[in-house]
Write a structure and sequence with these properties.
β3 and β4 (80-86) form a beta hairpin. The chain is of the alpha+beta class and 109 residues long. It is built from three helices and five strands. It has a five-stranded antiparallel β-sheet with strand order 2-1-3-4-5.
Length: 109
Amino acid sequence: MGYYTYVNLIIEESDDSLEQVAQSVAEVTKDEDVDFWKDVLSGGTEVKWYDVTDDMLRVSLRHPQAVLTLSGEGQENGDKWVSYFKDGKIQAERMPEWTPPPFDPAKLK
């Protein structure tokens, strides 16, 4: 069972368009609805995308010069992440968990 995530794609260092990358995602995922993937990648809808990392690694091989920055926000509180893909490689980052500072009476107003 998965849950929905809003994702957003930024394409840098390339002349490749969102439509070209969406076409690649549609082919890699075997879901040929390019318009759906354009909406997903532009943050216009939420999606259950189980193999996002593997799929985007394959997509990045199809666009080797591009830096593909895919960010997401899931249904669970604090589930924010960003992954950078380039030429079949990934740098993945998650929002760090927040730990509240200890009580400080000097900060009372």
